[in-house]
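Side project, low priority. Logging it here so it doesn't get lost.
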Amino acid sequence: MPTSFLEIVELPDGSIVLRRAEDEGVLVTLDFSDDAKAFLQGQHVEIAKAMFNTGVQMAGRVSEGDFEREEEGPRVLH
């Protein structure tokens, strides 16, 4: 993926998206349920920022070859 500036935007429908600054196309979408928003006491945007930050860092590691998946087949995600 070419290097570009990324931005995190909260859309009118409440979704929080990661997209390229020069493009309206969405790369990743996070949707928090009303229960999750209540549990996070309105800090869901800060949580989304942290989640996107970690994801971008991991994507960088993958693209640089620093991350190897050892197992093949389905994975259980926790």
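Brief comment: The mean pLDDT is 86.
Revisit when time allows.
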